[in-house]
Amino acid sequence: MIKIPIKVLVVDDEKDFVEMLCLRLKETGEQTSFAYDGETCLDILAKSDIDVVILDIRMPGMDGIETLQKIKHDFPLVEVIMLTGHGTTETAVEGMKLGAYDYLLKPANFSELQIKLNGARNRKDEQEERIRRARTKLLLRKSGDI
Predict the structure, then answer these.
(1) Is residue 146 predicted with pLDDT exceeding 80?
(2) What's the per-residue H, E or C state across the chain?
(3) What is the pTM of this model?
């Protein structure tokens, strides 16, 4: 079976963490991009096809919740996994209410992250398939075949 890489954007202001996580994800065959702030994240999403964003909640400037809201408004099919420290679990749950797929506590267990990444990508694929079916149905209806 051929593994299709997940296109992952890692967004965190901790540069060492971002570099290490991107390296580990690349070793497992994923395609990675990175940003150190919310604004850059949104710029990358506007220019690139990304499946899943791994997004830190606490960042200077535009925090993770504000970034999540803009992602879900502008790129609703992109899935988001929130990263949170031990004291901000409530914020991560708030993020899920705003459309995040899930959250992980820092430091993240890499195996758990991979499971959540696969789940997030599967959810994105399912949403895209439902949209394709709806569009096909609409086209058939317009052409008179239904």
Answers:
(1) no
(2) CCCCCCEEEEECCCHHHHHHHHHHHHHCCCEEEEECCHHHHHHHHHHCCCCEEEEECCCCCCCHHHHHHHHHHHCCCCEEEEEECHHHHHHHHHHHHCCCCEEEECCCCHHHHHHHHHHHHHHHHHHHHHHHHHHHHHHHHHHCCC
(3) 0.89
